Structures
1.
Amino acid sequence: MLISKQKPFEEIIGYLNGENKVFLVGCRGCAEGWESGGEKEILEMKKKLEENGKVITGYVLVDMLCDKALAALKLKNFKKKIDEADSLIVFTDGAGVQVVSELVKKMVHPGCNTISLGGGHAEWKGAERCMECGNCVLEYTGGLCPISRCSKHLLNGPCGGSQYGKCEVDATIPCVWHLIYDRLKEIGRLDKMEFLVAPKDWSVSLISGPPVKRF
Amino acid sequence: MKTKSNLERILEAGYFAVTAEVGPPQSADAEEVRKKAKLLSGYVDGFNVTDGQTAVVRMASWAACLIGKEYGLDPIVQMTCRDRNRIALQMDILGIAALGINNILCLTGDHPKFGNHPQAKGVFDVDSVQLIKIVKDMRDEKRFQNGESISHEPRLFIGAAENPFADPFDFRVLRLKKKVEAGADFIQTQIVYNVEKFKEWMKRVCDIGLDQKVKIIAGVSPIKSIGAAKYMKTKIPGMDVPDEVITRLQSVPKDQVPKEGIRLCVDIIRQLKEIKGVAGVHIMAIEWEETVPEIVEAAGLYPRPKF
């Protein structure tokens, strides 16, 4: 069970600067259970975004968004509506956001913060991992997670040890910041990497926050 | 002038600056630092002491900096985010300023994996860009990272590193731009052996006017042996040692290699002086500090300006 909580609406609407057409993605798995991205929440979000002048080109709920094969099948049926949209917002944990980012060549915004994995992990056994940091940064990183995949948890781009696309720590590990750069370049959003990302709030993370359950 | 830094004065006056790096000992031996400091005295405008380079435990940068200060040198404390969270970083920033140190070089730090305590937990609470902003806000806004105000702000000349030879190459200028926006006053680059690639990077830096906003000091280092050159080429992340460098060292008799390494370093300095936007050189003669005076003299950079 992955436990996620919707980001504050102001933060989500802030992500959509200049993007008017949006496609929403929810999950009938954990996110429905934790009321962060089930059908009810997606419809509520749709209404709120519309009240704020956004056009929702469509929405989809995937049974298990962290299952990449299943998500790919489901999203295929909505290709036209996704193509129409400027960007997507995904309402589930970090693993689900990373699945969609890999499947769709568009800006994918995280709609939730992942608070805890509740002892389990996502269905998708790919390279993507969510480390339940509680303050999702996938907005700035093209949907690839530097908290789980950068050896130094950097937030402002690759360190000086990134060479030939590999991490300085181990030549078999891809430099996630190199991948982030390539992806943002591909979707025309390198502006996301020019922005100064402020120090992260670790107090909401189970890694270094207090050892209590906050859900 | 933002600070009392000698390096800032030199750069602001438009002189071509010379800084050098000192590696502190893996012991409490102050004599070793004194010996190195004596060598550099009069030949450099500022001297860096590394902060646990390659994640090996060594004397603290600020402590060795203070010892060097006894010899009239202007110290540049290197501070990495590897071993300190934002609380420890800000405590050390206040501490070094209180001890009369005027320069700081903000770094992310080598990963613990490379060092002699690979089991250590890397901290990386903030990254180098964020550290620059923290120092800048402490100095100019008189604010801690949490927004609380400071009665006596640390007046530090803020440095950062950049590596034009790391990837993605296209991002390296943007990364420099981020560091300048965060508040860097000067930059010390990775060691330059590939002058052509460095020129291309500097051209892009100048194209967006960054050379007008920050002083760029190019890194250089004399090579002692062919083995060292090959090691740097293949084993050190983010280094670019072209084949010509190795061929040049191989072209002289074995006992002449160190001398040729010094000549090569001087040649590179001469080329760097001609590149638009380069404000100085940073000599990193790792465990070979005694060559610095010879290099500075041979490059026509001696004597250093006095104020």
2.
Amino acid sequence: MPIQTLLITLIALLLFSFFIGSKRSIAVSSVRKGRRNLHSRPNYYGFMVAIWAGLPAIFILILWSVFNSSIVTSLTIAGLPEGMQIQSKDELGLFINEIKNLSSSGNIESESDLVKKDAAFHYQKLEEISTLAKTTLVFVIALLGMLFGRSLVKPETRARNMVETVVRWAMIMCASIAILSTVGIVMSVLFESIRFFNAVPPADFLFGTHWSPQTSMRSDQVGSSGSFGAIPLFVGTLLISAIALIIAVPLGLMAAIYLSEYASSAVRSFAKPTLEILAGIPTVVYGFFAALTVAPFFRNMGESIGLSVASESALAAGLVMGVMIIPFVSSLSDDVISAVPQAMRDGSYGMGATKSETIRQVVIPAALPGIVGGILLAASRAIGETMIVVMAAGLSAKLTINPLEAVTTVTVQIVTLLTGDQEFDSPKTLAAFALGLGLFVITLMLNIAALHIIRNYREQYE
Amino acid sequence: MSDTTTKIIKAGLKKRYAKEKRFRFFGLMSIVISFVFLLVLLISIFSKGWSAFQQTYVKLDVELNEEVLGINKFSNKDALFSARYKKIIKNSLKKKFPGVKGRKQKRALKNLVSKSAQYELRDKVLKDPELLGTTQSFWFLAKDDVDVFMKGNIDRTLPESNRRIKDYQLAWIDQLIAEDRLEKRFNTQLFSASDSREPEQAGLKGALMGSLFTMLVTLSLSFPIAVAAAAYLEEFAPQNNRWVDLIEVNINNLAAVPSIVFGLLGLAIYIGLFGVPRSTPLIGGLVLTLMTLPTIIIASRAAIKSVPPSIKQAAVGLGASRVQVLFHHTLPLAMPGILTGTIVGMAQALGETAPLLMIGMVAFVAEVPGSIMDPATVMPVQIYLWSDSPERAFSERTSAAIMVLLAFLVMMNLIAIVLRKKFEQRW
């Protein structure tokens, strides 16, 4: 039975369980003093029976689905003729994939290779057995659970408390997904990175100045090893982020100051949402804009004054990225500037300071920690930004800080290494995870620092 | 003494006022500059993209010669299906422009109409076999070069060697225009076709359906999980509990993790460990769920927090349990805020590209996905793919795709604003 039908049948069964649960509760209660005799309302007895029918069955279903493919694959391998099993892991994986494709294509009979044909039939049979066993097991457990739940329906059963305990645990589990996904991120990048560092020494990665991850297919080719010095990538990332911040910080900060200190409420109510539009535009749109409009513009301008500007210059990517994070800087700064108590401004005016003097010498210093926190968050956003640089920055890793040249970034390299055809085990793809680890650690540190600064600052004035 | 101080102050006053004005001006300028950026961005995309909503069609007189096709109206379906319609189109062009010599020119002549013309013709014949043996005039999709020329994007004053359309092609096109055989119509292809290697045949339907399925997966997972998490953290979580603190720290950090890292997680855990099929809306939705969770959780918590305690206390006073208070009172009252946050989160997810590149959604998919398990691509990834294609006609379509995507985002945000305005309650 395909998974959709299975799920739909299961849901129907749960509805049925709910129904017989609540009916049963009314039935048992009417034997004695009527419904008032029940501990909980009939609905809760229905939910209780449905939970007993559903939870164990769904648990089994998930377990089965997770382990199904690896068990069936290993059984298929075990069923292969003697000679096949001593192949290397890669070849075996390839062979298994062929068999899977063959059995899903539907015409196994047309295959000429007898070993493959047998294996494909074997695989198909195993899959059939597995699906049949899964369906039977899930339904048997669901039915048993339903019967057990039904037997629990008695007037003195605390159905509401049971249901609420389950609901509460479900809520705790949902909340814990946040932790699970962090753990997932750390594990996924860490394990692959460790495998990468087994092949490439960490020192080479962290301090090497040459990045060319292309490894050759055969060992006798020239340049077979590939070199993984990540310095040019990090320098490129920093260069583009720095350009972005040079544009976004003054513009965003001044915009926030103007909006919160000078602008009339009419201007404010129009300008603030309009600025926010910049934050809502998808990054792929910025990337397209950078690659097709801004970069050629800079190149032509460079040509006209005799400068050679690369068509994928860091300047174009950085400028557009800066525009993207303007609303980020401005809304965070706006918040902290508005949080500075009016009394401090009034004190400054009382001493005869002009508005701009007050802002520069009183408001900004008071809001500085919050502003710095906001800038750190913006920096982490810029470092982790992907689409703009993928579309508008270069691919070749050049160690330079000239904004007119093409540089590449960490995120660009991750995307390049992981898109397209790939085997999962080569240092080339593993390098992407090592870069991801670096990216995660850097942005995490920036975020923690920023949140720390902002939180400490807030406590001062509230 | 006070006189001298006043004098000093007065002397500097002009300068200080000038400084004040300058400061204010800088503030205004930075807002204006930001607006200018926004305008330039939108104008550059709209000016490039609006023309893609029109498409050029060519009218050809096709002689459905039974001998050339090798079929007649009594042939069975298979024969009708596989007949040589390509030849018919070619003959009709040859007849229209006799005397074309040389391989290059012949190929150019064939390239006046799209390759899809033969399939359109086939479908017409399949629908009505009576057409066989007659001469009909049909409108066919024009090739992308013709289309680009018709939209005025090829300058005919350029020297021939710098032009994509040569002089002899120009002559043909001019003749067709003179005979009213070239026409620009609304581009239904853009919304009814899937991706294609030929720019004039490429459409957004596949990507739109892919986005729809991906968003469905994301919504159906992230909404219940986020609301449950937010409700737990606001209403049930014990104070000063290590586990709860850990959850809060993690939610805040997840909100700021670069999106591409979620792609790595999807690749290593979902695909590598659990064997979820790549390139499908399912895996895309799973990854985007993790990304949108923090947004929805944070918004939902704010909404739940704003429900006044008096309502909850009244419910408890009437004997409701805490779970009942939550489901009967708190959540319904907080729902407008929660929905607003959900829509904002969905809008983010709809525009997200980077993590989807990692999990194989960049594959070229020519079929419209029919379920969450079919290979698919989504709108932003389609934009990325088209922007990479060298053809001039694709650049125009990329801008059009961006306009469609932006229209969806604007719509979602408008709904969020209306929801907030309509249901916002001040207690």
